[in-house]
């Protein structure tokens, strides 16, 4: 996933690691979007959209991984650091809202990304590492698809047939075999077949 993220970020800016982008800002904004999908409004009826919550967690992971990159650490070394934090995280709560708020608060206060708090959010949302990987690959492919279809210049159409591209992606991922060697290609082709542009 780190290699895929590096490739995507390089597509946006060749020397992205040294740009000092505010990845933390994207993380807490995604936390806010997650809250919209889980529902927090006690004053109106809301139904949690678990699949969209999971996609928001994947979006957080994209930005979180990006924040962890450092020119002095190679991808293998970074992967080892992340693995230790992911697999040794203890859930403090089973509440997705509280876990999201904890990650957002830490991110705002430190302007950094906490793998341990992210792992707690995954556990609260009952999102396994395998599911994170499956959704990450799908979302990474969607991000490349967006770039290929005008995301940077503003010509990309995000809603197709009354649904966001993320919803189409979720449907595609559920239909495909994520263990297939050409899984990313299948996702891209599936998006291409559905895209109206």
From TrEMBL:
GO molecular function: transferase activity
Short name of any one Pfam family annotated for the protein: dUTPase_2
InterPro entries, A to Z: dUTPase/dCTP_pyrophosphatase
Key words of the record: Transferase
Domain of life where this protein originates: Bacteria
Transmembrane segments: none
UniProt name for this protein: Leucyl/phenylalanyl-tRNA--protein transferase
Species in which this protein is naturally found: Luminiphilus syltensis NOR5-1B
Biological classification of the source: Bacteria, Pseudomonadati, Pseudomonadota, Gammaproteobacteria, Cellvibrionales
């Amino acid at each position: 996933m780190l290699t895929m993220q590096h490739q995507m970020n390089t597509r946006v800016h060749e020397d992205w690691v040294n740009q000092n982008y505010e990845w933390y800002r994207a993380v807490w904004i995604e936390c806010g979007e997650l809250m919209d999908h889980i529902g927090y409004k006690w004053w109106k009826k809301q139904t949690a959209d678990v699949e969209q919550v999971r996609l928001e967690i994947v979006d957080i992971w994209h930005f979180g991984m990006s924040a962890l990159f450092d020119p002095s650490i190679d991808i293998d070394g970074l992967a080892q650091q992340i693995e230790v934090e992911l697999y040794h995280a203890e859930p403090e709560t089973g509440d997705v809202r509280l876990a999201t708020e904890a990650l957002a608060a830490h991110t705002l206060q430190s302007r950094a990304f906490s793998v341990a708090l992210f792992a707690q959010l995954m556990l609260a949302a009952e999102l396994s590492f395998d599911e994170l990987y499956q959704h990450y690959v799908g979302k990474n492919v969607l991000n490349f698809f967006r770039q290929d279809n005008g995301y940077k210049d503003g010509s990309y159409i995000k809603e197709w047939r009354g649904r966001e591209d993320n919803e189409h992606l979720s449907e595609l991922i559920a239909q495909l075999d994520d263990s297939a060697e050409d899984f990313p290609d299948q996702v891209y082709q599936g998006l291409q077949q559905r895209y109206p542009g």
